[in-house]
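Shift notes (night). Ran Mitochondrial phosphate carrier protein while the centrifuge was going.
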Amino acid sequence: MIYTRAISLTNFLVASSALGFQVFVLYPWHKQLDDSFEDLKKEHVRVLAAVKEVASEVDPNSRKGAKDSILGRLGMGFGTGSHLNSVTAALASSLPSTGGSKTGMSVSELARFAFAGAFCCSFTHGILTPVDVVKTRVQLEPAKYNRGLVGGLRQIVSADGAGALLTGFGPTVMGYFLQGAFKFGGYEFFKRQAGDYLGPERAAANHNAVYLASSATAELIGDVFLCPFEAVRIRLVSQPTYAPGMVSGLAKMANSEGLAGLYSGFTPIVLKQVPYTMATFVVYEKAIDVAYKLIDKTTASNMTLSGVNLGCGLVAGMAAAIVSQPADTVLSKINKEKGAPGEGIARRIFNIVTALGVRGSYTGIGPRLVMVGGMTAVQFGIYGHIQRVWFPPLVDGVCN
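Came back to this:
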């Protein structure tokens, strides 16, 4: 039964993703390419006209005079000031107007970033559902599931059958599809906006702050959409008989516990996901900088670049797992069952943290290091490959 539901859900997601890809990505992208090509033709005609005009006025034996005159006509004269600044300013002034934004992101660009992030997050979380099931059960029942990742897998299969390893597959895929869209798409959007607002020099000087603020804001928005699905996933894993699937689980939880039940884990999920995402992107960007000091990305093959993305993603994922593990354990505990009558969310978190202690808060860190490290590596590998296809001039790490 569970395999039938999984196949049906997968088919639905594939069909929905394909339709969304055509409507929100391919069509806007084609329109943008046509517009860009027309702008390029106009600019080409303008440059040729300037060159032809200058060629008729300047002594053919004076190449320097011709060069200076042509550049002057185009707004790129070489004065005594900074050569780089004058050329950069001239190029910026010659570009088509974008409504006052220096590098503002178009809707089609944002849609492509969001779709790439949605795909890589839902795919990686989906295929690692069995590991997530073991991790969650270890966190909820450490005395019972105390034999590590492989031992936990065997225990679950022996007690509940192999189908139990796919418990929560539906809410996992759907929740992280939405979260990934806002996480990656939002990160690129807010990073671009910060660069426009601060300017290139200030943005470069404060790049760590830009990475942190952009990732935190994007993740916070993504968590709003992820939280209900994560609550249902944990309830299904901890109570296999709670509901037969995602839709029925969401309906049952909404009817019995209301919106407060679906978002009972919002605080711990924010405390887990926001530091996790901040650590992921900052460590990844730093790792990419180090990698590209050792490897020339302009001459490296696609396989090498994918390997760099995978390796840097692995390092980032393991760092993020360590940072966010305590909040992940609290999240599993708080979504296991309803709180006591009159017990507020702050009190529940305090009681759980007090009972766990430092050592208890890192219960299940082994399976989670495997899951998060591998998952993040694959995410950045897929995401980096998609960006090299869609934005070849922009790719540097995630996208600079």
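The chain has two domains: 1-96, 105-390. The CA atoms of residues 4 and 10 lie 10 Å apart.
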